[in-house]
Fold this protein.
Amino acid sequence: MTGSGRRYPIFLLFVSFVLQPFPALPESGGAGAAPILDTCKAANTFLAVTDGQDATSAVADIAAGMAEREGYPAIAAYLARRAALQLAADPAPWQPAGLPAPLLAQGRRLATRIAARRQETEKAARAGAAPGTDPGAAVVARSLGAPRFAPFAEHPLPAGLSPVEPTAAQKAAGQALLATARRLPGEPELVRAERQGLRAAALVLSPDYDPGTEISSGGYWVLLSEDGGRTWSAPLYTGLRIHTPYVVRAASALPLFAGDHLQVEVEVRELDPASISFPPVREIRVKRQARGLYLDLRLADLTRDTDGDGLTDLAEERLLTDPRRPDSDGDGIPDGRDPLPLVPWRAGQPAMPLSALLAIGAVGKQALPAGGLQHLPALDGEARFVQGDRALFAGLLPDRRVIVLTPAEQAAAAARFGPFFPLEITLFVRDRSGHRAFAVWSITWRGGKLRFEERGGVWREVSVGEWIS
Ligand SMILES: [Ca+2]
Ligand SMILES: [Ca+2]
């Protein structure tokens, strides 16, 4: 266990990184406000009595207590969560063989206190971060609890038909047909296009609602034409994600059009989420395979926009907005134009550091339209998912649709739609002065800490550290 002993200074460095941007801690001076590094050093000496046992949980707990005392509930909750996770990862840090009984008892008390502090600090952080209600929470809960909107029926291919491969001529014809499409979501990949008289349909694969990673990803969208491919509908989200469990075949002996339905030949190649790792060092496994199938997609299901807000019901299901309410968060901006459809917009939030943080997820910001929020442009298909505290986003105007979910909502959405990996804003706090902010973020296998400072009304970003696993 000598190796774990060397981890204390590393962890203390981390703690100091977290708390240093908040000079109120060491500088507050008054009775009981001991400088944090001195206290951590004292704790380190004390913990060394356990003869090199890993005690990062204890150090995190002490730091959480100090952050709590200093009035930073978000930092306290973050550190208390780390203390609990560390304890869970190494459940017996205080129980080496031969440890004297008083120290063993102390270890048990520590474990109890860590659990209690985690509960208390998370409660305090929630109370401090979200004054009033969070309209987004109710909308997301309803969306996640509703039955799937269009579970397209799966059928075996009719007798006598079997899967075919596309010819070079078919591929070229499909590309030519789609060349006239004016607007496509993201960077779509044409999967299949077919014309029947004046009607044409194209299936494309796009990461817009199903964020791509190094693992093959994306969802299927349909484009429709009624004039032989001269003009096309806006892309329609199908709610079908590649490998979850279907993969659309690039050609089929079964015609795509069947009246007001599309018959989409697919095969099952269902990804095993347990085989996903970051970085992708393991081979992605397929847990179920089947061929010779087609899905029956009713055009009415693809185009239905029950509340007329510009987002189809299928799109709203994926974005977790309310398909029966044109303005899910009630801020006056309809969902089709609202860059944050789950966060009511509020003017005057000091949101600049958060904008800089969002840029890591390739999200920019737009200026408030001269005519007011009613003049926001309609947003195209692209959406970014972010995991964090919705209340922080209230004053932002991102340049694309941003869906902010809590960790619990994100987990529930991944269980429903398949794994996806948002930008996680694990911690975002401003100090008492309002002129400094600190953030911890991660996205797939990258992450980092950022410090921000405001001088003369201008926020400046200072990268504290970044990691790649
Ligand atoms: Ca709608
Ligand atoms: Ca709205």
Summary: The first helix runs from residue 2 to 5. Residues 327-329, 331, 333, 338, 341 surround calcium ion (ligand 2) (CB under 6 Å). The mean pLDDT is 81. Residues 153-303 form one domain.
